């Protein structure tokens, strides 16, 4: 029997991360094919990862079992429609933000569609992806789709497709919030007399340490925060300032905007 082949349509940042994870898990490079029109990106994938990369689907001769759609949401519709007939018998896994399974099922003329929202820590195997499939998708297809993303981290299934917009607001775009905080902490550290490098080292190690502590602890983040906070002490001075400035409410508003944009993209790119 022929080896199961995974096709990536789009070989950019996210695709490269996932391919790297699959290879590390022992999937053979000969069983991974990429369609990537940008020549330099294509050559880098071939040279660095040893996978086959084509400029377009005309040179695609391999039978494909799973297709990972990793192009920008804006171009997904025409790209899917152009390849729909050729890839009709495959399982489809899309990582495009905001594009619904209903729209993709229509463009592909296939119901075997799983939609996912990964994140960039996938680049180092520490991603987390939300997944959704409607009732048409059988267990074997769900397992196969999840396996692709488990190669680069954790997966979490959601029951309702709209919840993927919340996943986008949390973990999909979430790494950017962490980097934003790191920028702020570094800037503050410098203003308070540290070098940029010292401030950055302290900020990154604090994020790493506090995240690991939260992951291992049975306590809520609120309790963990209280443990750092002595009444009338230094942390208290910081957190009361955060509360006075209503930072939590502003942060929630930012995530709401992210969620709403994800939902809006379904209208923009999904018709
Ligand atoms: N970057 C992120 O944090 C996340 C991105 N996503 C989604 O992943 C998808 C890919 O994002 P990135 O990898 O960041 O983007 P990217 O821009 O790095 O990759 C997209 C690739 O698609 C290629 N492409 C363009 N037209 C094509 C065509 N007709 N056929 C085949 N390939 C084509 C481009 O040359 C490019 O290499 C997007 O839909 C995005 O919404 C999802 C979760 C997180
Ligand atoms: O900003 C975006 O649209 C993509 C989706 C989640 C993270 N990046």
From TrEMBL:
Q: Quick one: which gene encodes this?
A: proC
Reactions catalysed = L-proline + NAD(+) = (S)-1-pyrroline-5-carboxylate + NADH + 2 H(+); L-proline + NADP(+) = (S)-1-pyrroline-5-carboxylate + NADPH + 2 H(+)
Species source reads: Lampropedia aestuarii
Its lineage opens with: Bacteria, Pseudomonadati, Pseudomonadota, Betaproteobacteria, Burkholderiales
Keyword hit for Signal: no
Output the HAMAP family linked to this UniProt entry. Answer: P5C_reductase (MF_01925)
Q: Which InterPro entries match?
A: 6-PGluconate_DH-like_C_sf, NAD(P)-bd_dom_sf, P5C_Rdtase_cat_N, P5CR_dimer, Pyrroline-COOH_reductase
Report the protein name in the record: Pyrroline-5-carboxylate reductase
Q: Where in the cell is it found?
A: Cytoplasm
Q: Which UniProt keywords apply?
A: Amino-acid biosynthesis, Cytoplasm, NADP, Oxidoreductase, Proline biosynthesis
């Amino acid at each position: 029997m022929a080896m199961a082949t995974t096709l990536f349509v789009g070989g950019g940042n996210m695709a490269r991360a996932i391919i790297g994870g699959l290879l590390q898990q022992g999937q053979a490079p000969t069983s991974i094919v990429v369609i990537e029109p940008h020549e330099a990106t294509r050559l880098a994938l071939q040279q660095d990862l040893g996978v086959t990369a084509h400029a377009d689907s005309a040179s695609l001769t391999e039978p494909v079992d799973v297709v990972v759609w990793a192009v920008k949401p804006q171009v997904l519709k025409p790209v899917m429609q152009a390849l729909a007939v050729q890839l009709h018998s495959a399982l489809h896994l899309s990582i495009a933000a905001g594009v619904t399974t209903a729209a993709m099922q229509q463009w592909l003329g296939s119901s075997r569609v799983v939609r996912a929202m990964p994140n960039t820590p996938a680049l180092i195997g520490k991603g987390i992806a939300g997944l959704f499939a409607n009732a048409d998708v059988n267990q074997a297809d769900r397992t196969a789709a999840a396996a692709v993303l488990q190669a680069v981290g954790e997966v979490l299934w959601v029951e309702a497709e709209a919840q993927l917009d919340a996943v986008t607001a949390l973990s999909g775009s979430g790494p950017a919030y962490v980097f934003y905080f790191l920028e702020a902490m570094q800037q503050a550290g410098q203003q308070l007399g540290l070098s940029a490098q010292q401030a950055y080292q302290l900020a990154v190690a604090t994020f790493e340490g506090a995240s690991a502590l939260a992951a291992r602890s049975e306590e809520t983040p609120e309790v963990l925060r209280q443990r750092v906070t002595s009444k009338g002490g230094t942390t208290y001075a910081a957190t009361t300032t955060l509360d006075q400035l209503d930072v939590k409410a502003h942060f929630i508003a930012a995530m709401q905007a992210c969620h709403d944009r994800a939902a809006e993209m379904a209208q923009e790119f999904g018709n």
